Amino acid sequence: MNKIWLITQREFLTRIRKRSFIIMSILGPLLIAGFFASMFYMAVSEDTNVKKIAVVDETSILLNKITNTKYLKFEYVPMAKLPMLKKTLNQTDYYGILHIMPMAAYSPGGVQFYSFHEPGLSVVQYIASSIEKEFRIQKLLKYNISNLQNILKSVDSSTKISVETIKLSESGGEKLTDKGVKMSVAYISSLLIYMFILMYGSQVMRGVIEEKSSRIVEVIISSVKPFQLMMGKVIGIALTALTQFTIWIVLSVLFTALVKSAFMPDLTPAQIGAQPQNLMQATHGVTTVIHQSPQINPELANAFDTLKKIDFYTMIGSFIFYFFAGYLLYASLFAAIGAAVDNETDTQQFAIPITLPLIIGIVVMINAFQNPDSSMAFWFSMIPFTSPIVMMARIAYGVPYYEVLISMSLLTITFIGAIWFAGKIYRTGILMYGNKISFKVIYRWLKYKN
Question: Do β-strands 72-76 and 51-57 pair in parallel, antiparallel, or remain unpaired?
Fold first, then answer.
């Protein structure tokens, strides 16, 4: 055990002293925040180029009814110009031609848009909604409703539906939920486990290959057993990952506090009250202030309410377990691959079967967001190779404790078996050079007796 600890210490200290580790530990939270911010920006940002669209309206109903926006300008032209416009569109300043045919109100193909460029989804949706709105008004006018426009404006402004989801418990209790907030928490937790398993598991494999190719391992195993070397390397890199992850959490909390102080100056200590003793009290204090402040969006207040009701103790405890257990499972297999091959190029045929369950886990995770209690989500949260990702996606929504315990037990048994399996391969493969490795050869190594 002492030798495993010495190897663990060596792996840990060697890696945390690297300049790349220090830089990524500091910049990691900013890069992750920038990644998600850029995804959100690209999803909601509009094209700032002004698009001029020629409208040919054969119905004579929509004249000047499709209103211009900041980036969309509509110009109505007579039907006679349509053939010529289609031929010379690229020579005009029009972005496209919108042709509204007489049967547009009752035929799916009644509205056509011609352009040399594929129009963006926002452009198509705006045109469709504008036409639908006007046709709806024209149909209602047939019922001789007086003051229709004012009625519609009143209805539209006063009819805002927000569905509250309430989860019932066996004891008859009720619990308000927010799917969007819970999905965000579940997504971040699952994605972090996926990233760290893949990133640091690969580091184990590359470290083993590097030591094997440089023949340093021959010197090391003269003092320690191959299994001790493998376990020391796996645990050392796990501690490196945990250290970096802890730094990221601390920096993220500080960054969040700075953002709140800059953009939410009303959240002063006097408003929040006494110093919170834990995460639950802190969330409750922020929620109280948000509800009292009229400038804050009510949806944001509901989001904080939902955060307060999430069982963070279970979430954090489960995250730590699935992070380490999932890492030990995959890192031991990556270590076995590194010991079996001579260079990183040869790892592809063995790495694909190992990384494939992780990819499947990400796919099932998306399904779990939509229906966390589905059969697919349940079974993949029990399968040890996908449970670290899928179960974390389900826990935020509330999972019976017995399901979590079964999943954890199966994962524990599997990673112990994987360590034994990897140890058998590592013991033989670490000193093998120049041999063509196949699954048949690896199977033969597993049958070797001590």
Answer: parallel
Identify the bridge partners of residue 175 per DSSP, sorted by sequence position: 167
Same domain, 215 and 120: no
Q: Could you report how far apart the first and last alpha carbons of the chain are, in Å?
A: 19
In three-state secondary structure terms, 447 is coil
Q: Give the residue numbers spanning the domain of 321.
A: 181-446
CA dist 109 and 103 (Å) reads: 8
Distance, in Å, from the CA atom of 268 to the CA atom of 290, rounded to the nearest integer, reads 12
- Lowest mean pLDDT: which of 64-78, 253-267, 272-286? 272-286
- The answer to whether residue 16 sits within a structural domain is no
Helical residues (DSSP H) of 45-120, grouped into ranges: 82-88
Say whether both 64 and 208 belong to one domain.
Answer: no
Q: Are residues 104 and 207 in the same domain?
A: no
Do 281 and 378 fall within a single domain?
A: yes
For the stretch 371-400, pLDDT in tens is 888 889 899 999 999 999 999 888 877 788
pLDDT tens string 185-241: 777 778 888 888 888 888 888 888 877 777 777 777 777 777 788 888 888 888 888
Mean pLDDT (the chain) is: 75
Q: Does residue 400 sit within a domain? A: yes
Place of tokens 């009143």: 154
Specify whether the CB–CB gap between 188 and 369 falls below 8 A: no
Q: In 3D, which of 52, 102, 93 has the Cα closest to residue 76?
A: 52
Is 370 found in the same domain as 272? yes
Distance CA 30, CA 354 (A): 30
Residue 73 lies in a domain: yes
Name the percent of the chain in helix, strand, coil, to the closest 5: 70, 5, 25
Judge if pTM exceeds 0.90.
no
Match 């899928």 to its residue by tokens: 390
Query: d(Cα 231, Cα 234) in Å, to the nearest integer?
Result: 5
pLDDT > 60? residue 306 = no
Structural domain total, the chain: 2
Per-residue pLDDT, 152 = 64
d(CA 419, CA 100): 67
150, 173, 191 — which closes off a domain?
Answer: 150
Residue 88: the pLDDT is: 87
Contact between 360 and 332 under an 8 Å Cβ cutoff? The reply is no
